[in-house]
Amino acid sequence: MQMMSSEHLTCGWLQQLLVVLLKLCLAFAGPLRPLNRTECTAKGPASYILVFTGHWSPQAFPKQYPLFRPPAQWSKLIAVSHNRHFRLWEEGAPASAGVQNFAELGVTVELMKAAKEARKKRVVGAMYRTAGIPNGIGHSSTELIVQPRTSLLSLMVKVIPSPDWFVGVNGLNLCDGSQWKQEVTVDLQPYDAGTDSGFTFSSPNFPTLPQENITKITSQMPNHPANSFYYPRLKELPPIASIRITQQSRSPDHQTSVSNHILPNSISPQRFSVTPLDCEVSLWSSWGLCLGPCSRGGVRHRTRYILLRPANAGTPCPELEEQAECIPHSCMKPQ
């Protein structure tokens, strides 16, 4: 009887110890949180209309604005619905071969192949495309059918012409817990894929070796006057494009009339940005020869030339020629 009582006391003591340890762990860990914050528990799929709008105008982006061969335009839009185990592209990470080909050449073969392989693993839900836009300002759209298990959306559109620049979103969640979002609007900024070192829209092919990570292009970075997006007067670039994703009510005979179409140009962007472009001039040349009669002294000249003409009420160009008095060499007395 004494042995049984001893075993019973030991088991009770261990149970109390485990309870105390569990309370301590919970106290330090804080409240329990879901393992996957992006998990969507909505009932059933959602239908959306995605509208891409280009705001790339010579008023908003006057520096080196492409007018021909080719003029400013947008490639087709590539979009993928997926879960947290898939990445179409990611800032701060190297571009995949598919992203490189799309950002440099607008070719979608490898990008879509990777998405199709991921779809077999059930980490990608669906893939979408819209037609390209032949101007810097314009719209295109497509319908999205998004499932709860793949509620994230990533997309890319190439900037044409450019070395390897694109706009896009990475892992935009269209679901908020158990509810689908009604409307999402995102302003888009340009990104550099890190595979071509060209500085301007029309730069020749100049592979980046070794390859660099994907980075956002800003008004200050790359910090070089030759860069097409370098606007040192601006704290940030105006949006070069935007997307609006709006939920649609669906019925059995619902059909969309705007899927994968370019919307009419009569639908103009809601806002316009005007970016002042300051004049840029070269350094002064060396002083020329001192010319003139000895009785009145001589004059010498130096010049500089315009690198970039001002636009949109930017700072005007300074004087391009300067003169100064001097003593002609023929008038100098030997010492």
TrEMBL record:
Its main location: secreted. GO terms for cellular component: extracellular matrix. GO terms for biological process: cell adhesion. It is found in: Secreted, Extracellular space, Extracellular matrix. Residues 36-225 form the Spondin domain. Keywords: Cell adhesion, Disulfide bond, Extracellular matrix, Glycoprotein, Metal-binding, Secreted, Signal. Gene3D superfamilies: F-spondin domain, Thrombospondin type-1 (TSP1) repeat. GO terms for molecular function: metal ion binding. It comes from Mastacembelus armatus (zig-zag eel). Residues 1-29 form the signal peptide. InterPro entries: Spondin/Thrombospondin_T1, Spondin_N, Spondin_N_sf, TSP1_rpt, TSP1_rpt_sf, TSP1_spondin_dom. This is Spondin 2a, extracellular matrix protein.
